[in-house]
Design a protein that fits this description.
CATH class of the largest domain: Alpha Beta
Largest sheet: 8 strands, mixed
Number of domains: 3
Strand order of the largest sheet: 5-4-3-6-2-1-7-8
CATH superfamily of the largest domain: Histidine kinase-like ATPase, C-terminal domain
CATH topology of the largest domain: Heat Shock Protein 90
Structural class: alpha+beta
Number of strands: 22
Oligomer: single chain
Radius of gyration: 34 Å
Length: 610
C-alpha cells in the first residue's frame, strides 16, 4: 500500500492558519496595530476603505525593518519576540507567534514599505496570496507602512461570509478601541472612506477613555488603585447611576493586553450587587499587571483568552478593589472650601453700641376666640367657622377612600364593580399574565410579548404609510447622547427612520446627537440606553444574510417600548391590550418568535383535575 501522508504546501498551510488568525477585516487590523505597537511606534495611522474589503493600511513611525527582515516577516513562525521555549513564560509584547503577516499575505494582496531610522533607503515588498511578486529599494518615511488590499480575494467563499459594511466597521472599531485605550502614550488617527473617525493625541488613560468614549472620567467613573504581592490593579469603574443596558464598555487588560475572562468580569459585577437595577451593566476599564510567569497567554491564536495561576485570589482582589472604589469615592461627602465665598466680618466702629432688638406682637390676640375683629391689623385669625369650621375642614379626610369602603358605604356594588368581578372579565395575574375565559377554555396571555406584537405591527404599518402623521412627545429638556465614531456613523444612517417613528434627533458631532422629542411610549429618562440597545439589536440583526433594516429597528423599539412585567395595569388598559392584540395580523407570536398566548382547553383541565 502506498503512503498517504504528505506535507501541505506553504500556501495551503498559510490559508489554513489564516482561517484561525484572520477571519474578518477586524482580525487583520488587530494584528497590524499590535505589530506597530511592538515596533515602538508613537504615532499610528489606520486607513480603511469599504470596511476593510478594499483596503486596510497601517502606517507607523516605529523602528522599521531591514531588507532581509522585510522579506522574512512573511514566513510562518518568523518572529523577533521570542527565541526559546522559556520566553513563552516571560512575554511582554503584544504578538509573538509569527503567524500574523504570513496569514494575512496568504489571503490578500499586500504591499509593505519600511525603512529603519538610520538608513536612507527603505524596502518595498509586494506579495499576493503568499507569492512574492517583487522586492526592491524605495524611498519612504522611517517606520513601516503595510497596505492590505482586496482581503480574501482568492477565497470567494470566505469573502461572501463577510457582513455588511456597518457591521464589519463596528468590529474594526472595537478592535481599535482595545488597542488605543491601553496605549495612551501613542497618538492614533483613523480614516474610513476618507472620513476622519479618530484623532487621538498622547495623554493619560483618563483622557484617552474620554476621547474614545465621549465620557469624562471625573463625571462617570471612580478611580481604582490596589497593589498586592500577586497583582497590581489600576483603572476606573463606572458610577452606579451611569450603568448601561449593554456590556459594551467593559474592558480588562492584563499586562497591557485586552483579555476576556468571565471570572474577572463577574468579580467586578458582583461588587455592584444591590447598587444597580437588574439587567443593567456597569462600565469599567481595569489595567492589571501580573508577573508574566503567572499568566499563560498562549492558549488561543487571538491571544484574548488567558489563564492565571492565582485565579481565585485575583477574583477576590478585583472584587474588593471595585467595592473599595465605590465605597470610598461614592459615599464620602466632598466639601470644597472656597476662600472667595467666606463672609467678611469687618470690625465695628469704635464706640458703636448696637440697638436692642425689639419684638412686635398683639397682646389682645386670642387663638381660641370663635369670632374675630374685622380689622386685619389686629393680628387675630380671620377664620369665622369656630369648631364647626374645623369639623367641615376635616370632613373630607374622614370619609372612607378605599374601594372596599365605598362599596360598604353604598350597600351594593355598582354595575362597573359587578362587571369587574364577572368571570368574563380579563384578570391580571402577578402583573405578568392576563387570564380570560373562552368558550373553548381559559386564555393565558403574556402581556409584555403581546404588547411587543402590537407595537411592532403599529410601527411597521406606520413605516409603510406615505401620508404619515407621527406621534411625538416633546422633551422638557434636550438630551445629549454620545457614541463611538462607528456607532455614531451607523446611527446617522438611521436618523431618517427614527424621525419617521417620532424621534426628533439631530447630529451635533460625529459622536454626539441631541434628542428633543421621542415617541410617547419610549422611556425618555433613559434615551441613551434606548439608543444604545437599538444599535446593539441593529448590529445583531444586520449580521444575518437577508436582514431587513426596517424590521430590525421596529423590533428593537417595540421590545423597549412594551409594558414591562411587574407594572400594574388598569382593567381598561388590559381590555384595550387584548382588543388590539386580536386585531393584529399575527396575534399569537411575538416579533422575536415567542408565543404570546396559550389556551388551556376543557379536556386539559379535566385531565389535570382527575
Amino acid at each position: 500500500m502506498s503512503d498517504i501522508i504528505n506535507l501541505l504546501p506553504d500556501s495551503v498551510a498559510n490559508q489554513i492558519a489564516a482561517g484561525e488568525v484572520v477571519d474578518r477585516p477586524a482580525s487583520a487590523v488587530k494584528e497590524l496595530l499590535e505589530n506597530a505597537i511592538d515596533a515602538g511606534a508613537t504615532n499610528v495611522q489606520l486607513v480603511i476603505k469599504d470596511a476593510g474589503r478594499t483596503l486596510l493600511q497601517v502606517i507607523d513611525n516605529g523602528c522599521g525593518m531591514s531588507d532581509s527582515d522585510a522579506r522574512l516577516c512573511f514566513e510562518r513562525h518568523a518572529t523577533s519576540k521570542i527565541h526559546a521555549a522559556d520566553d513563552l513564560f516571560a512575554i511582554r509584547t503584544m504578538g509573538f507567534r509569527g503567524e500574523a503577516l504570513a496569514s494575512i499575505a496568504a489571503v490578500a494582496q499586500v504591499e509593505l514599505r519600511t525603512r529603519q531610522h538610520d538608513n536612507d533607503l527603505g524596502t518595498c515588498v509586494i506579495i499576493e496570496g503568499s507569492d512574492v511578486k517583487s522586492q526592491e529599494p524605495c524611498t519612504c518615511n522611517a517606520g513601516t507602512s503595510i497596505a492590505v488590499k482586496n482581503l480574501f480575494y482568492n477565497i470567494p467563499a470566505r469573502r461572501n461570509f463577510l457582513k455588511k459594511d456597518g457591521v464589519e466597521l463596528s468590529h474594526i472599531d472595537e478592535v481599535f478601541r482595545r488597542v488605543a485605550v491601553v496605549n495612551n502614550h501613542v497618538s492614533f488617527t483613523v480614516y474610513s472612506n476618507g472620513k476622519l473617525l479618530y484623532d487621538l493625541r498622547e495623554g493619560n488613560k483618563a483622557q484617552r477613555i474620554a476621547d474614545i468614549f465621549g465620557m469624562g472620567s471625573s463625571e462617570h467613573f471612580y478611580p481604582v488603585s490596589e497593589r498586592t504581592d500577586i497583582v497590581s490593579v489600576e483603572g476606573y469603574v463606572g458610577k452606579p447611576e451611569y450603568v448601561r443596558k449593554t456590556r459594551g464598555e467593559q474592558y480588562i487588560f492584563a499586562n497591557d493586553r485586552f483579555i476576556r475572562h468571565p471570572a474577572l468580569s463577574a468579580a467586578v459585577e458582583k461588587a455592584y450587587s444591590d447598587l444597580i437595577p437588574e439587567r443593567t451593566y456597569p462600565s469599567y476599564f481595569l489595567f492589571i499587571q501580573v508577573d508574566p510567569s503567572r499568566i499563560d497567554v498562549n492558549i488561543h491564536p487571538t491571544k484574548t483568552e488567558v489563564r492565571f495561576v492565582d485565579e481565585h485570589a485575583l477574583f477576590a482582589i478585583l472584587r474588593a478593589a471595585t467595592k473599595k472604589a465605590i465605597g470610598q469615592f461614592g459615599l464620602a461627602t466632598e466639601i470644597e472650601f472656597n476662600p472667595s465665598t467666606e463672609i467678611d466680618f469687618s470690625d465695628a466702629p469704635s464706640g458703636y453700641i448696637p440697638p436692642e432688638p425689639r419684638v412686635s406682637y398683639n397682646p389682645n390676640y386670642n387663638p381660641f376666640e370663635q369670632k374675630t375683629s374685622s380689622s386685619s391689623s389686629s393680628g387675630a385669625s380671620t377664620h369665622s367657622g369656630g369648631d364647626a369650621s374645623w369639623d367641615s375642614t376635616y370632613a373630607e379626610l374622614r370619609r372612607p377612600t378605599t374601594l372596599e369602603s365605598r362599596i360598604v358605604e353604598d350597600e351594593s356594588p355598582s354595575d362597573e364593580m359587578a362587571e369587574m368581578n364577572s368571570p368574563s372579565m380579563p384578570l391580571s395575574y402577578m402583573n405578568t399574565y392576563i387570564i380570560s375565559t373562552l368558550k373553548s377554555g381559559i386564555l393565558v396571555v403574556n402581556r409584555q410579548r403581546a404588547h411587543e406584537r402590537i407595537l411592532f405591527e403599529r410601527l411597521m404599518a406606520h413605516k409603510q404609510q406615505t401620508d404619515k402623521v407621527t406621534a411625538s412627545q416633546q422633551l422638557l429638556f434636550p438630551v445629549n447622547c454620545t457614541f463611538s465614531p462607528s456607532d455614531g456613523e451607523m446611527l446617522g444612517e438611521m436618523i431618517g427612520d427614527l424621525r419617521d417613528m417620532g424621534f426628533a434627533i439631530d447630529a451635533v458631532t460625529q459622536s454626539t446627537f441631541v434628542v428633543t422629542a421621542a415617541p410617547p411610549d419610549v422611556n425618555d429618562s433613559d434615551l441613551q440606553g434606548v439608543l444604545d440597545q437599538l444599535l446593539v439589536d441593529y448590529k445583531g440583526s444586520m449580521m444575518q444574510k437577508f436582514a431587513d433594516k426596517d424590521r430590525a429597528i421596529c423590533q428593537s423599539l417595540a421590545r423597549q417600548m412594551a409594558v414591562k412585567n411587574g407594572k400594574p395595569l388598569q382593567p381598561e388598559e388590559i381590555q384595550a391590550l387584548l382588543a388590539e392584540l386580536f386585531a393584529c395580523q399575527v396575534p399569537n407570536i411575538s416579533p422575536s418568535g415567542q408565543k404570546t398566548m396559550y389556551v388551556i382547553n376543557k379536556d386539559e383541565l379535566a385531565e389535570k383535575l382527575r
